[in-house]
Specification:
This protein is mostly helical and 183 residues long. The protein has one domain (2-68, 102-182): Double Clp-N motif (Orthogonal Bundle), CATH 1.10.1780.10. The chain is 61% helix and 2% strand. The chain has helices at 7-22, 30-39, 44-51, 56-67, 73-78, 83-94, 119-134, 142-149, 155-163, 168-182, and strands spanning 111-112, 115-116. It has a two-stranded antiparallel ribbon with strand order 1-2. α3 (44-51) packs across α8 (142-149). It is elongated.
């Protein structure tokens, strides 16, 4: 399936699993694909995202805050809960990373790097293929992936980008311009 993906696009897909794990998610969504594209230093997507001033650290923090991925240790401590103690106890009883393991109910779904792609991520990849065909490219690069991620149905991605001050239509135009230059 991935033979038509450029090396940068393959790396972005693999890195998206890492981004999901960093946010303690047991699935990969388009938002994790966006983070992995923003983390790259080269490629059409990296150039377009950097060109409109998007920063990977800011995007990660925004997504973590929106998803509630970060636990406030101080707030828990005010309730008498030591977050690190809870984590240490769970890992002592069930093994390292016990709290990070995906649910067994996710078996059988398409997995990338141990995490399943959710339906929106699958749709983003399908849209990336359509973008490549639309540009008459016989490969899928990071620019095509970014166009797939920027779909109107990916509300988390659109909110994340809007919160970071990005205009999605401008970003789409920048990606298309860079794809045309790369051809």
């Amino acid at each position: 399936m991935f033979e038509r993906f450029s090396q940068d696009a393959r790396e972005a897909l693999i890195r998206s699993a890492d981004e999901a794990r960093l946010l303690r998610r047991d699935y990969i969504g388009p938002e994790h694909l966006l983070l992995s594209l923003a983390a790259q230093r080269t490629g059409v997507a990296a150039g377009a995202l950097a060109g409109i001033g998007l920063d990977i650290t800011d995007l990660r923090e925004r997504l973590g805050a929106e998803a509630g991925a970060t636990l406030d240790a101080a707030a828990l401590a005010s309730l008498g809960i030591d977050l690190e103690s809870v984590r240490a106890s769970a890992e002592a009883a069930f093994g390292p990373g016990a709290l990070d393991r995906p649910s067994s109910s996710l078996r059988g779904r398409f997995r990338l790097g141990g995490s399943p792609l959710n339906e929106r991520a699958k749709k983003s990849i399908e849209l990336a293929l359509r973008a490549a065909v639309g540009h008459k490219h016989n490969y899928i690069c990071t620019g095509h992936l970014l166009l797939g991620v920027l779909d109107k149905d990916n509300q988390t991605v659109l909110r994340l980008l809007a919160g970071a001050g990005a205009d999605v239509d401008t970003l789409r135009g920048e990606v298309r311009r860079r794809l045309a230059e790369a051809a």
